[in-house]
């Protein structure tokens, strides 16, 4: 509940009393302090919970390996990325809104969400799709950047200004990535 409040109102806009009310505690009575030393500790624990979930789910990409067909693997990867971005909308809103005010708190989240995902995809491109190492990072950045930006616009703005259907986006994305995999 606290993460929902932080995502809706921002860290500054969320009071401890609101968090207590959302947790079923008496607002303003300080019951939350039996579990957390501060409001920032609540935010930190919430981010860690989300990151732990993401780390566990990131291993799902190993399920895609061995499918044998690059088009199918890329399609599954694109669907997976878009689904995870949708599932982590709260975390994304918090990371974006708190990046300037609490860079130390969100730096690890950004590192795990962005860098690990891009690095993992670049590694997959090298290992499974035969993309040369000097090209894999760039293909990963452009490829995942397209998926991330399409979804972030929707998550952060609350509307889809581009209006591209997910199936059309995925099909085009797969075709573009495949065009960079051929020698």
Description:
It is a single chain. The chain has 183 residues and is mainly alpha-helical. Helices cover 73% and strands 0% of the residues. It has nine helices and no strands. Helix 3 (39-58) runs parallel beside helix 7. The protein is elongated and about 65 Å long.
Structural class: mainly alpha
Mean pLDDT level = 82
End-to-end gap: 50 Å
Determine the strand fraction and express it as a percent band: under 5%
**Can you count the helices?**
9
Roughly how much helix do the residues carry, as a percent range?
A: over 70%
- Mind describing the biggest β-sheet? none
- The radius of gyration is 19 Å
Low-confidence stretches: none
Order of helices and strands: HHHHHHHHH
The tally of strands reads: 0
| Shape field | elongated
Characterize this entry briefly:
73% of the residues lie in helices and 0% in strands. The chain has 183 residues and is mainly α.
Q: How is the topology of this model organized?
A:
Layout: H1 2-9, H2 16-22, H3 39-58, H4 61-64, H5 70-87, H6 89-98, H7 103-129, H8 133-157, H9 166-179
Helix pairs in contact: 1-6, 3-7, 5-8, 5-9, 7-8, 8-9
Give me some keywords for this one.
183 residues, mainly alpha, 9 helices, 73% helix, 0% strand
């Amino acid at each position: 509940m606290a993460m929902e409040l932080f995502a809706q109102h921002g860290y500054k806009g969320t009071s401890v009393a609101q968090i207590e009310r959302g947790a079923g505690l008496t607002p303003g009575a300080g019951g939350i302090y039996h579990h957390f030393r501060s409001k920032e500790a609540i935010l930190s624990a919430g981010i860690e919970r989300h990151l732990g979930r993401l780390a566990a789910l990131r291993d799902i990409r190993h399920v895609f390996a061995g499918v044998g067909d690059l088009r199918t693997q890329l399609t599954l990867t694109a669907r997976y990325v878009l689904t995870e971005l949708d599932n982590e909308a709260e975390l994304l809103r918090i990371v974006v809104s708190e990046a300037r005010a609490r860079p130390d708190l969100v730096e690890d989240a950004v590192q795990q969400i962005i860098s690990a995902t891009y690095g993992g995809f670049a590694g997959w491109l090298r290992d499974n799709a035969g993309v040369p190492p000097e090209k894999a990072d760039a293909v990963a950045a452009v490829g995942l950047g397209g998926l991330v930006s399409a979804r972030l616009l929707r998550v952060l703005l609350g509307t889809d200004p581009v209006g591209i259907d997910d199936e059309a986006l995925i099909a085009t994305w797969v075709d573009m990535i495949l065009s960079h995999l051929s020698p």
